[in-house]
Amino acid sequence: MATTTTRPAARSTSVENALAAAKLPTYALWVVFGVSFAVVGAVLLLIAIASEAEFNYAGWLIIGGLLYAFSTWLFSSLVEGRRRGMDRFVTALVIGAFVIAMIPLISVTWTVVSLGAARFDVEFFSYSMRNVTGEGGGALHAIIGTLEMTGMAALISIPIGLMTSIYLVEYGRGAVARGITFLVDVMTGIPSIVAGLFAYSLFSIFLGPGTRTGFAGSIALAVLMIPVVVRSSEEMLRLVPNELREASYALGVPKWLTIVKVVLPTSIAGITTGIMLSIARVIGETAPLLIAAGFTASMNYNLFEGRMSSLPVFVYTQYANQGNPPEAYLDRAWAGALTLIIIVMALNLVARLVARTFAPKTGR
Q: Where is the signal peptide (predicted)?
């Protein structure tokens, strides 16, 4: 009996030792990483010197990453086995894809921050461009216009989009629901300039040709926001388990109250995120606002009268219509772009705070 009980234990111990031994040390991957990029860098440097050209940084990163992935797969397959080697190879490819995706984002952020900081001062946020032809001036009129038009577009599109998604998930059946879904899909793909032309034509019919107001810009943005709100809210509402609805119905709660008290609070975090995505989708639009709301260098707080400027249109006009000195116009354009990024970031932070505050508590 003693012999039969010790043999499996000894065999399992030997297997564990073999598995523990067949593993690359932690520093090995870093050595492979450094050697791969060093070899590729040396080869590209020699080529650049021989051809009297600049060093190819993009080629260095891409070829070095591919060589690292291949080397990791080769050494891991020889030491740890083919399965572990393929796992490390795919992991290297995923990390490389993530790095490639982050390079444009970091580059854009760094460019906007470095070039926009030159005019990121008090004057930029407290003055408009009225009677300013050279240096100085600010974007207060564009900031106010962006906040007012985007806010009005949100007030229009969020209730419509949310109620449409509730209808499609909770009530919609048959040809009507399929028709609404089809129209929402079509609206999702329309160009933004078409929305601007629609708003301009609508107000030209009722108020006369050439009418451009901030409210027309809000209508154009609302047309672009509604399908995004509908789609995102619909997906979040479908994720709510049916057991929660059935439990509410079993207690005698009517359907409308179940939606208000159970379905919406459960999905409020995802709905808020979708709404913020829709706002971020339209807050940087230039073409529809340039057509529907126009452009002005003066302050205009009234959405329903007169042309109204916005940050995207402000950035476009400053860059396209450079005066003397051109550096002043470019500095204002970059500062406006940086301001727009900060506004979007602030809205996303507010959305996360709202979602965390009103999300259902799962703990006891």
A: none
pLDDT tens figures, 38-89: 999 999 888 888 888 888 888 888 888 889 989 888 888 888 888 888 998 9
- Distance between CA atoms of 277 and 228, rounded to whole angstroms? 8
Question: CA torsion angle for 255, 261, 267, 269 (degrees, to 10)?
Answer: 160
Distant-in-sequence, close-in-space partners of 321: CB < 8 Å, separation ≥ 6: 329
The phi-psi region of residue 294 (left if phi > 0; otherwise alpha if psi is between -120 and 50; otherwise beta) is: left
Kindly tell me if the per-residue pLDDT of 196 is higher than 80: yes
In this prediction the pTM is 0.79
pLDDT confidence of residue 359: 67
Superfamily of domain 124-358, CATH level 4 = MetI-like (1.10.3720.10)
Tell me: cis bond preceding 325? Omega within 30 of 0 counts: yes
Match 């990483």 to its residue by tokens: 33
Asked if residue 324 lies in contact with residue 257, where contact means CB atoms within 8 angstroms, the answer is: no
- Report the alpha-carbon distance of residue 289 to residue 309 in Å, rounded: 8
Domain ranges in the chain?
2-118, 124-358
Q: Give the chain's length.
A: 364
Q: Is the pLDDT of residue 304 over 70?
A: yes
Q: In the predicted model, what is the mean pLDDT of residues 316-321?
A: 87
If you search the block for the tokens 């707080």, which residue do you land on? 301
